[in-house]
Design a protein that fits this description.
With 180 residues, this protein is mainly α. The chain has 10 helices and 2 strands. The termini are far apart. The N terminus is likely disordered.
């Protein structure tokens, strides 16, 4: 597999290692940088291959289509920056639907569905929900509490049993601390 994807001649590694043996700090640092970059590209390739394994069942393909269709609506609402009554009902429905997708058999008391959670994360739903909570959008005053509640329920569903999402939410804790 490496031979098929190797675009850099084999002698490159030997040259980069040779650069690391010099006494000049700049050469050593640059040589180490090149070696790191060369080897991390394989790690990146494997991590991308792991993400492609998500759509291996028919149900995963259906979830992918559902998320893709609904996310288009959400992003149009976010681009408009003003959510009226009709859009707020649609947004609530979509957020609830995404929350249900995060659990096995749609049971909120059940186990997490890691593949569906990862599909949502890969589509950037996490960032879109944080944008909504961050006040990036003007929401009609009657619907604000419902949209915030559904947004937090979705974040909770995405983070259920998912340490990667939990860490990303922890890194953005400042957003949640300033919500009034």
């Amino acid at each position: 597999m490496f031979d098929d994807t190797d675009y850099v001649p084999r002698g490159f590694v030997n040259v980069a290692v040779d650069l690391c043996r010099y006494e000049f700090d700049t050469l050593v640092v640059e040589g180490m940088f090149l070696l790191h970059r060369y080897h991390s590209s394989f790690e990146d390739m494997f991590s991308r291959a792991m993400q492609t394994q998500l759509l291996i069942t028919e149900r995963s393909k259906e979830v992918h289509a559902i998320v893709e269709k609904n996310l288009r609506e959400i992003r149009l609402m976010l681009a408009d920056r003003n959510i009226d009554a009709e859009n707020s009902r649609n947004l609530k429905r979509i957020l609830e639907e995404f929350s249900i997708l995060c659990y096995m058999d749609g049971n909120r008391l059940g186990d997490a569905h890691p593949i569906n959670q990862q599909i949502l994360v890969n589509f950037g739903v996490l960032d879109d929900v944080i944008d909504i909570l961050n006040g990036q959008v003007d929401i009609e005053s009657d619907a604000v509490s419902d949209i915030y509640r559904n947004s937090f329920q979705l974040l909770m569903a995405m983070a259920h049993g998912n340490p990667i999402v939990q860490q990303r939410l922890f890194d953005r804790m400042f957003v949640f601390l300033k919500i009034e």
